[in-house]
Inverse folding.
């Protein structure tokens, strides 16, 4: 099971002289990544673009980001445009992939 996998991974790290970290590092915040996540959520979960401006969503962002001034929540128009660009960029690839 997973405990065997974890033990083997720790043993391998020790043999290589690498100490495993206590917890995995969180990715650094980026506006582009934030926009990509929101666009994907709206498209995949059929959420309204307006949901990115919901008071509860904005409160969640404040909570998670601890009032970090670098965190800017994109507008619903920005997310709509991002989803449109994703669709335009991926549609030909998906069409070619699924052609028989």
């Amino acid at each position: 099971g997973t405990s065997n996998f974890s033990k083997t991974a720790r043993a391998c790290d020790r043999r290589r002289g690498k100490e495993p970290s206590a917890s995995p590092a969180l990715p650094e915040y980026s506006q582009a990544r934030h926009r990509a996540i929101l666009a994907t959520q709206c498209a995949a979960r059929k959420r309204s673009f307006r949901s990115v401006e919901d008071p509860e969503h904005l409160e969640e962002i404040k909570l998670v980001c601890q009032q970090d001034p670098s965190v800017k929540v994109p507008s619903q128009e920005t997310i709509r445009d991002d989803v449109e660009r994703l669709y335009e960029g991926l549609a030909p690839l998906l069409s070619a992939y699924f052609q028989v």
Observations:
- The mean pLDDT is 86.
- The radius of gyration is 20 Å.
